[in-house]
Amino acid sequence: MAWVLLILAGLLEVVWAFGMKASEGFTKLGWAALTVVAMVASVGLLGLAMRSLPLGTAYAIWTGIGALGAFLVGILVLGEAATPLRLASAGLILAGLVGLKLASGD
């Protein structure tokens, strides 16, 4: 169950990252509110997941899901560049997340 909570926390990190961009510096109230709610929920779920997962693993996976998710949203939704070097770098992050999961023994 901790892994499910951690994945949900990471996905909410993607939501708040996108919401922060869409809020245009917290000037759009609806997006700003979504951002704050997603932030609180994301950190709350991370805290619940950390009850049984190691700190280093949980935090790295959480930030990695957020980083990769925000990267993909940037490309797919916001039209950011998908250059070979950017894609390869994201692939390295993904490989690190898989390695952490495999090394966790859970």
Automatic annotation (TrEMBL):
Location within or outside the cell: Cell membrane
Record-linked InterPro entries: EmrE-like (IPR037185), Small_drug/metabolite_transptr (IPR000390), Small_multidrug_res (IPR045324)
Domain of life: Bacteria
Keyword list, A-Z: Cell membrane, Membrane, Transmembrane, Transmembrane helix, Transport
Mode of membrane association: Multi-pass membrane protein
Family: Belongs to the drug/metabolite transporter (DMT) superfamily. Small multidrug resistance (SMR) (TC 2.A.7.1) family. Gdx/SugE subfamily.
Protein name: Guanidinium exporter
